[in-house]
What we know:
This protein has helices spanning 33-47, 75-82, 95-104, 120-123, 127-134, 168-182, 201-207, 218-227, 242-254, 297-308, 329-344, 354-362, 377-383, 389-395, and strands at 13-17, 24-25, 28-29, 51-55, 87-89, 110-113, 139-142, 164-166, 188-192, 213-216, 258-260, 264-268, 279-282, 291-295, 312-316, 348-351, 371-372. By secondary structure, the chain is α/β, with parallel strands linked by helices.
Amino acid sequence: TLDDLPADLTGEVALVRVDLNLPMKDGSATDVTRVEAVKPTIFELASRGAKVLLLAHFGRPGGQRSSMLSTSMVIGDVERVIGKEIMFIPEIAGPVVAQAVSSILRDGDIGLLDNTRFWPGEEKNDPNLAQAIAAHGTLYVNDAFSAAHRAHATTEGLAHFLPAYAGRSMEAELKALDAALGTPEQPVAAVVGGAKVSTKLAVLEHLVGKVQHLIIGGGMANTFLAARGVNVGKSLCEHDLAPTVARIMDEADAKGCTVHLPYDVVVAKEFAANPASLRTCNVHEVAEDEMILDLGPQAVEALADVLKTCRTLVWNGPLGAFETEPFDAATVALARTAAALTLEGSLISVAGGGDTVAALAHAGASQDFTYISTAGGAFLEWMEGRVLPGVAALEV
Ligand code: 3PG
């Protein structure tokens, strides 16, 4: 971590990998959480006297320059959040970068290099590219946990060419995630929601061996219910996964993990806000022309009771079609219960994944969770129990 560096970094050039892959609308970022997350690292390095060169990807340009995907698109948002002027450098290696470092940036100044993915060597983790970038710095800091599932030149390769450190955001993510699944206080509950089992199979397989309570929500719950022989009408459901899901449930049984499926559900004949056909029923009473769109109130109450018996919660994915009212009710209610238990000090709650963060924010619960990860794909891969290459490279 940055604690392993000397206090005075004057004369050092820190290459800092951050995640500036921000959601954009009309040319500005709609959410700057990721910038806020890396602010402490940037500030600390700059105030300890280092020249700071920020490296980041933006979108998926596939190895080609594109003006719309230049990191210059986000520099205004980054400057606003960091509260300091940042120099844009339209390259990631070579004479332009060398000149900026030697003649323009002073100690404590910050530069932002262009989109690392404009160079094909980035995604190929080409050691020649990593070496060329490394030539401009004296140390490497990775503060982009949310890109650590990618073995790219600036997320993994650089660590082989320079002394490598975890930034403050990376450090906080790893600490929180370890507290949730590495060495958690038990019992542990996991909420896994979202539309499809197929995208989260590896997560489920890993969790049944790790947690005591596995709470299934969203469209995924329909697939689990169908595998138990429940008629889910015209609900979103991956019927072909029934045997896989049955195997996961058997495995959970064998490993002492209780899989929680809803008793009651909210259904409608069409998916729209507050539809006329809206009703709540027992899972065994879903009609052929109805679809399940949320968990019912009894299910939520039962799940709240489960959380009250737990010490740790890890949450990924909404429980219902939360973007459309009233199908946000179960997610909102359970998120608020988790937030309240966290505030009381009886629960350590960690959540991550794009949809999840939006759902918890919608519930007004985010600020009370113990930790909300800035990661989407990386959070899921971590929930699968995978070693993330960007993290592994720091541990060498
Ligand atoms: C993200 O937005 O989750 C990260 O920045 C990773 O982006 P990617 O999925 O394009 O690698």
